[in-house]
């Protein structure tokens, strides 16, 4: 479907065939991101990895991320951080359960994932945490802004009257200042011999500063490069995971049969344990199916943004250079041609197929596909699995005020990430008491 946003042509792709054409067959021609005036400012003039144009610099940033920051080994090295932070949340939830109180699980899980990502990135608890997360939240909201100048880019008047880029610049500068302070503190720590965190692992910042100091990388790793990469990790690595975890709990509550089956698997496999480790979760195949099914029904980023680099034909239609292309992941993952009972939450559908997250099955692309597939997929999945397994192992769950599962609010909030519109308030009931530190 082609529409026009003012002067800007936009193509929305909502079929498996169209997605394969854009993300595989003509992947190179659509390897750009759609960048408007506000995004350009927030993304450091599109010099970060996520919004950078497809060029040699982007390729080297991607290579740096995949070979140094987000490798399987690096993600695994943060296992102790995930286990410690999840155990901390379980203890807090047990206190609420003892008091018979409902908890704002959206807030609790959001804070948990933010802390995990912060610890992996910085290596210690950051005294700028609240200030940075507030600035980051403002910036993420601004990424969704569309100005008159974005709709009519040829209009000088439209560019003059809009103040969105100036407001976005203030948010970016605030984040820049905070990250620069973090970088300087880590540099000082490394100069005094502290090149690893308390767990003996290199944080993302430490890795980047080490490479900066050693030199020899294909691109210069400046402080600006580090700021941009950390912005991508913080913004992409926290909200998507916490959003998906909340949708998992929503669907499990709405489908008691699935909840019971998932809890039975976890409790049978971990019987007798008071604390869960990631190693305990390796064989939990039904939990893996629950994660997949949630990502199918609730793709964290329902619209993948791309831009056409050169005029071409897609499935017989002309697509002009500069056209913004949105791949409608949400529609594709609910297409009844590929998914039986597409609107139902049925994790078992993944039991007998080999569909995975790698982007080769175009009916299931929650992390995208092709050159621009999400580089933080392994980190996100690692964060989600231990949290979900722990929530289901330690607690039973009930809605407050005798609310029926069918009355649970399932509306999505507007924005780049399809989070739940309202917070999930729910009552934990302790089944297996977590270890008290």
UniProtKB/TrEMBL annotation:
<keyword id="KW-0503">Monooxygenase</keyword>
<keyword id="KW-0560">Oxidoreductase</keyword>
<dbReference type="Pfam" id="PF00067">
    <property type="entry name" value="p450"/>
</dbReference>
<dbReference type="GO" id="GO:0016705">
    <property type="term" value="F:oxidoreductase activity, acting on paired donors, with incorporation or reduction of molecular oxygen"/>
</dbReference>
<keyword id="KW-0812">Transmembrane</keyword>
<dbReference type="InterPro" id="IPR017972">
    <property type="entry name" value="Cyt_P450_CS"/>
</dbReference>
<dbReference type="InterPro" id="IPR052306">
    <property type="entry name" value="CYP450_71D"/>
</dbReference>
<keyword id="KW-0349">Heme</keyword>
<comment type="similarity">
    <text>Belongs to the cytochrome P450 family.</text>
</comment>
<dbReference type="GO" id="GO:0005506">
    <property type="term" value="F:iron ion binding"/>
</dbReference>
<protein>
    <recommendedName>
        <fullName>Cytochrome P450</fullName>
    </recommendedName>
</protein>
<keyword id="KW-0408">Iron</keyword>
<dbReference type="InterPro" id="IPR001128">
    <property type="entry name" value="Cyt_P450"/>
</dbReference>
<keyword id="KW-1133">Transmembrane helix</keyword>
<dbReference type="GO" id="GO:0016020">
    <property type="term" value="C:membrane"/>
</dbReference>
<keyword id="KW-0479">Metal-binding</keyword>
<keyword id="KW-0472">Membrane</keyword>
<dbReference type="GO" id="GO:0004497">
    <property type="term" value="F:monooxygenase activity"/>
</dbReference>
<dbReference type="GO" id="GO:0020037">
    <property type="term" value="F:heme binding"/>
</dbReference>
